[in-house]
Write a structure and sequence with these properties.
This protein has one helix spanning 2-29; strands at residues 41-42, 49-55, 62-68, 73-78, 83-96, 103-105, 110-113, 119-134, 141-142. It is an alpha+beta fold and 144 residues long.
């Protein structure tokens, strides 16, 4: 019994500092942004705006939002990383190469595009705001 208790105490003494360090590292990366505090910037010379909410310093995974006015086309492009899109406001129509289907997404709608899949999109009449995550560095590679 004494040896079991001693083993548990020694094991705890080893794990506690590691767990504390891991939590401290997580706390250092924690971030919260209120909707009213989102900072929008022009997205190149397009009518769209972008806000990079967070980029993981280790993996470069990026969390961002884009918004655009009504009836705009996002030309064919691809990303180096896997991309997920969740519509927050408006209508966002997505399509990808290899399919003639276009899918109209409304708030809560979701699309996933694997890395290097060529895709395009359109905003609805009232525009669209959508949340994007990529599991690596954010980039956009347009296709002519």
């Amino acid at each position: 019994m004494k040896n079991s208790l001693l083993s548990v105490l020694m094991f705890s003494a080893v794990l506690w500092p590691a767990a504390t360090f891991a939590q401290t590292a997580l706390d250092a990366m924690a971030k919260a942004v209120k909707a009213d505090n989102i900072k929008w910037e022009p997205l190149g010379d397009t009518p769209f705006e972008i806000s990079i909410l967070y980029t993981n310093p280790t993996t470069q995974a990026t969390y961002l939002m884009i918004r655009g006015p009504g009836n705009q086309h996002v030309p064919r492009h691809w990303h180096s990383s896997n991309e997920s899109i969740t519509v927050v406001k408006g209508t966002f129509v997505v399509a990808h190469d290899g399919s003639d289907d276009k899918t109209a997404l409304t708030p809560g709608g979701f699309a996933y595009m694997p890395a290097k899949m060529i895709h395009e999109a359109w905003t609805g009449d009232d525009g669209a705001t959508y949340f994007i995550t990529v599991d690596g560095k954010w980039d956009v590679n347009f296709v002519e």
